[in-house]
């Protein structure tokens, strides 16, 4: 199993939208590195859901339920989507500021490649964030 982080601006598609819908395809990726990350995702991989621009925090955990296929929002064959479903809402969303302050998370792609919309996360990073997010 691998671990990932996806970013969405809450006004476009918030965590609450994914919860309400029950699943979605992750579309609109128009960066080759992010696209390649989508194509590397496998069923059951875990995904941290990050609200970008507004909130700037990890708010939930999702799961890949369908591997990469043609993005249905474009006829351009270069772009792909995956399907994800929500698994867990974090009791305490983990802010970008908290991530930057945690020495265990200093190498996260979220810090190193902040503009990338789909990025890998190590198991250690995933576990640290989820543990912090589950704690009251």
**How many angstroms separate the termini?**
27 Å
Order of helices and strands: EHHEHEEEHHEH
> Radius of gyration, rounded?
14 Å
Q: Number of helical segments?
A: 6
CATH fold category name: ph1033 like fold
Number of strands: 6
* Secondary structure category: alpha+beta
Number of domains: 1
Share of helix, binned? 25-40%
**What percent strand?**
35-45%
Shape: globular
CATH secondary-structure class: Alpha Beta
Largest sheet: 6 strands, mixed
CATH superfamily: ph1033 like domains
Which strands sit side by side, in order, in the main sheet? 2-5-4-3-1-6
Based on the structure given, which CATH architecture is correct? Roll
Mean of residue pLDDT values: 96
